[in-house]
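[job 0412] stage=fold_complex status=start
inputs:
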Amino acid sequence: MTRIDATNVHFSYEPSSEVLRGVSISVPAGASMSIMGPNGSGKTTLVKMFNGLLLPTTGRVTVDDIDTKSTTISQLSKKVGVIFQSPEKNFFSETVRDEIAFGPKNMGFTADEVNAVVDDVSGKFGLRNYLTANPFDLSGGEKRRLSMASVLAWKPDVIVLDEPTIGLDYQYRVFLIDLIRDLRKEGKSIVTVTHDIDFALQTSERTALLSEGCVVWQGDVTSLLRSPEAFERANLIQTFLASLCHDLLESGAPERSFAPVDVGSLLGEV
Amino acid sequence: MRFGKWPTQGMAKESVVSLKDVSFTYQGSSKPALRRVNLDLGAGEFVLVTGPSGSGKTSLARLITGLIPNSYPGEISGEAKVFGESIVGSKVHTVAQKAGLVLQNPENQLFALTVEDDVAFGPENLALPMDEIVKRVDWSLAMTGLEDQRHRPPFELSGGYQQRAAIAGVLAMKPKLLVLDEPTSSLDSLAARNFVKFLTRLCSEIGATVLVIEQRLELFYTVSDRLVVIEDGSSVVDAPPLPALDQCLTNKLPVNYPFSYLFWKRYGSTTKHGAKKPLPEPSEYVKPILQRRGDRIDPH
Amino acid sequence: MSFAFLRAYRFSKLDTPIHRLDPRTKLLMSVVFAVLGITTLDPVEIAALLIIQLLILSVSKSLSLWFRSLRALVFFLALILVTQALTTGDPVQSAFFALRFIVVASATSWFFFTTSPEDMGRALEQVGISADVALSFTLSMRFIPVIAEEFQSVFDAQRARGLETSKGSLVDRMNSLLPLLVPLFVGVIRRTYEIADALELRGYGALKTRTRWKVLRFRRADLAVVLALVALSACALLHRVGFPLPEFFTLRISL
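[job 0412] stage=fold_complex status=done
writing structure:
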């Protein structure tokens, strides 16, 4: 199982402005984690370090104890699959099959292995009847499922979702929450980068709050819910759900029901 | 804070938008984008529109502001009027001076190389005299709080400021109806909350009627007069926010139910009938919502 | 991937006499210098043109910017010098052609260094180019950094799926461009539809003429420069026609 460690990472795009200022963060094997922070806090820059797209100016990032500086992006991507914002904008193939097969082919899968994963993943995402269709002809929901399938096809150990909730409707939100739960059951690590606190509360057990390039809080979601001043430090707002959980925890509700937060049982139970 | 208040009876409401059984199919498409939509907006209202992706919300926005059917040809039926005049046959630029549309991606609405030049773009196109253009630019920039940014290129602005610059550009056309398509989609939670405050203040200052298309209901439902849900091209719910959400729940509609609403729904009525366990002390989010039940017209 | 080369002709906001000139004047200057440079065969003329250009650049405080922009010309300069060495081996002639290339290529440099992009658009409009073309020009400039960023996103996303762009045969590398170019083009085309909608909503094209809220004004300094350009062209013309000048000035190139 893969773990990622970032130690005292500093990074600047331009010499005058530092985006990451001494970030130390750990993604343990099999973790379900969120990295929260406002826009411009450096969250996306940080996760680009996880698969080698960016290298720290100073500090170290290791994936399974291998320094990201000493290996390539493709090698790292085999273990760490990053899904960026609006992934449906990156389609380029003529068929759905080719689009799903792109990643595994690049990773060196044999033709038989490629066929096997395409079959497997298209089944999981309900795309088996669309394999010969043109990706651009799919509906909005089908496109999003295809973009998920394309990254999960080579079965990375760690899956990073960069701002998955932007512009989402209710159905896709539910789809994502269920997907994350399924992936957790398979033992994968999930890292969700988001500014949507409610989504993070519902999908992660551990969290790190990032603000202006620094980690202002790191730990269990439950502890965060107990100490809501951390939200303010990170320039985030304490949402209704967060304050509700805080109240419930303070009045003695059992901690196990809070990480991740299951709204259904929460509102039903109490 | 408006919260489901209808204008009191006796006051004549100017009809801003009047859609009666409007259907529209884009040219070359087999499925209608809008199916017998009915919608009435009165002057000064703040209406929230939501619904699943692809349900026709953007088409509705395009219809109200004249892009449909003038820029997007297709089959249209039914009666569509904005400020009393039919959309069909009106030119886009005529409608744009009555109904302004702020599109989803602010970047694609900022054309010029400085903010002030961009705000001037609309008035320039309307061939207004130079001193009128200068007045409008100054006014729009003041209304949106962008005076300090006027000489900056759009590319250098943060998301929140880009959003405001796009709005300033539309304001310079002096519309009385403002339609915004998912304005907070690119903003983080704090910026989004500030945006809601900014928008409500702006609209009350200029006396505009507002229609906001949004997925993030929790931000807007406490400041809206009505909530309209669009599904499959039709408006399936059209009521003040709380009754509207109740209807959505009953019909199991896929909308982003605000947690505060769900909590109120769960606990709001149990204070009367007695809860199973003693309730925790409501935080500041819940209190106003529990209190609000007192001044609503229909005891739900 | 650095897009530093886009910075080669970047505008820097300073307050020099050159910056304050009407962009149309600067455009005229560029045209005059380019034409004179292309049509001459006289190394003395070229040297004179180059010296005047360097003066203009130093007054507008853009000498260092210009020097950096020369890096883009290095390849062609080398090509010229090599061709000359192979054909004639004449050092004076080589120097001449190299310098002429620099003079002509730099003729537009101060225009870009000292004119803000919005003034460039205005200059085009007021020179008589149609509003549509001028708008296309301004929109292109406005969206260059946006498209560059979009390309970077696509590049990142495809590399995260294992795309390699610098390995393998030439055919492999060409194939690796497809996952980059298709999404980029699709994205750009989608964007143009949205921009077209937004333009309509702001009334573009509704009326035959549009007002311009900022108009470029010709000032005395501009008139002085135009007269100087006329004088310069006159000197060059007389010089070429063979007006009697001291022998030192009649060093001509024989082809």
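[job 0412] summary: Chain C has two domains: 15-115+219-250, 119-201.
[job 0412] exit 0
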